[in-house]
Amino acid sequence: xxxxxxxxxxxxxVRERAAAEVAELASRGIPCGLAVVLVGNDQGSATYVRAKxxxxxxxxxxxxxxKLPADTTQEELMALIAxxxxxxxxxxxxxxxxxxxxxxxEQVVLAIDPLKDVDGFHPESLGRLVRxxxxxxxxxxxxxxxxxxxxxxxxxxxxxxxxGRSSIVGKxxxxxxLARNATISVAHSHTDPRELARICQSADIxxxxxxxxxxxxxxxVKPGAAVxxxxxxxxxxxxxxxxxxxxxxxxxxxxxxxxxxxVGPMTRAMLMSNVALAAKIQHGLA
Length: 286
Ligand code: NAP
What we know:
The protein is 43% helix and 16% strand. It has helices at residues 7-27, 43-59, 74-86, 105-111, 123-131, 139-150, 170-179, 193-201, 246-249, 263-282; strands at residues 3-4, 33-39, 63-68, 90-95, 159-163, 183-187, 205-208, 226-229, 233-234, 240-241, 255-256. The strands form three sheets. It has a six-stranded parallel sheet, sandwiched between helices. The protein has a three-stranded parallel sheet with strand order 3-2-4, sandwiched between helices. Strands 9-10 form a two-stranded antiparallel ribbon. A hairpin with a 5-residue loop joins β9 (233-234) and β10. 47% of the residues are buried. Bound molecules: NADP nicotinamide-adenine-dinucleotide phosphate.
């Protein structure tokens, strides 16, 4: 039976670390504000934003909360981002995605000052990751690296398989594992479905980030592997589940993350950590 990787517990530790960093920065007069921008009335996005604002409170991070109407224009949103870029009290800027369909997300990501890019989505942040330079990393893969480290899972020399190649999870995940000397395979929707099980079976570290409920089954898992489930899906009964069939995979894996209580809480906690890091970078302390 696999060891369960407790994302909730680790997230508390990451938040405590971030809170200590923020307090230390505040004592030196360095502000660590986080601007959180929500456009429109999407209930899911509103829930995420509320959770992020609560985390800010827990970490002593002053939050600047912007709720904009659904008919906000691109120009209005860009003007707000320009103001936040110039605001010395704002160390980090987060624009909650997805945006309403009439808004250009790519333009928004590009407009955020890379030094305040606490989501780690800006091409400069991703470019720094590719080049192996220090910088702000996307929260989900950064949280997964923390989990691996906390449970003594060293990627060096291991085979890592990532199912999914999005810019916010799969691609940066593969680069972070590569930087830690794992051998990487990345599967995606064009991967031959007859081959997918075999590819997954080669993984010492298997990261499922494809958004398909319970796609990765127990027999796809190499005995003793670390299985990281990024998915936040709904099963046939509408219940929250991951991309991994937990019941069958936990019988084979060495370590496994649950859904909920795994990657999700760590993603949120890494945002707080990134706010402190952004403030440090802006003041030449990192
Ligand atoms: P995404 O942008 O939709 O990307 C999904 C990826 O999976 C794509 O690269 C896609 O391939 C690939 N894929 C689709 N069907 C596949 C198949 N049959 N076999 C292999 N690969 C397949 O999703 P995302 O934003 O990366 O998120 C993935 C999942 O993680 C979702 O459930 C999301 O809700 C969840 N998530 C959770 C957190 C968290 O904090 N826990 C954070 C972010 C995302 P193509 O590139 O070829 O289309």
